[in-house]
Amino acid sequence: MNNLYPLKFIPIYKDKVWGGQKIKNILGHEIGNLPNCGEAWLISGVDSDPSIVENGFLAENELNELVEVYMGDLIGEKNYELFGDKFPILLKILDTSDWLSVQVHPDDELAKRRGLGNGKTEMWYIMEADDNAELICGFKTKLNKETYKRYFDEGKLKSILNYERVQNGDVLFMPAGRVHALGPGMMLAEIQQSSDTTYRIYDWDRKDSEGKGRDLHTEAALDALDFEPAKKHKTDYRKVKNETATVVNTPFFTTSMLDLDHGFEKDYAALDSFVIHLCVEGEYILKHEEGFEQIKKGEAILIPALTNEVQIQPLDNAKILEVYIVN
User: Fold this and answer.
1) Residues 139, 287: one domain?
2) Is residue 234 part of a domain?
3) Does residue 238 lie within any of the structural domains?
4) Are 181 and 103 in contact (CB under 8 A)?
5) Closest to 311 measured CA to CA, from 281, 289, 296, 283
6) Model-level pTM?
7) Phi, psi of 59, rounded to the nearest 5 degrees
């Protein structure tokens, strides 16, 4: 068997009513004729949309098939025990030219109870934000199910939602259960549990060409919602050069920032996990024992668990989100 090596994947593009052209115009992705490209799935183990390898001798293989073959060598021994043959992280870039629906995701317990696999906790890193760009995260004040239903039934849902202005470099951690919606004028990286389950609560009264609105999941969302307001919505992290700065550390994933302007070495030997690099600014060369890859803004690479050391050589400057799971 040939040696495993860091894997690049063919992005999967999604046309969305709220999408735009930044993934094409800013990142240079070949999105085809999609008029409203809202999402680029960079790494996915979702059954309906599995990522396909782009580089090396494993090109044209599906990600979950490789997990089945390489098991712990690819994703880490403990991760393989927990997740089996399904890759546990879904990595996207989103471009918003309009409001996304107000929505919520179930947690692991509720998802399993409903036969949906695992829940969906996620985080956002804002790559590009227009002036006055904002999003919704959580409620303004503490509610209960009855109070929430009253506001909803009276058409006053928007009045109880918490709005946050965002700018480049902001991070928002979005645990399962927290109501949220992205506003127009931003491009962001989304790191999440591998799940495509979304309960749509409100869709801004949008209608399609036939006068129909998208389906809402009003009742299904009720048991998923966390009615406690968050004490803080944006995630603070150390903004330092040429160090590993932890941004989010949870049982679902750990994300760090590497803000580099010179060569940097990483030793992952003790980690027992795959590592994802997502370049959110600049460009760099990743050197490893099997060769090297060049990674640009808006591209990701999956480093297998058995890869111990890599060298990162930024081309001028690079900001990289580093993602893994340690149990």
Assistant:
1) no
2) no
3) no
4) yes
5) 289
6) 0.95
7) -55, 140
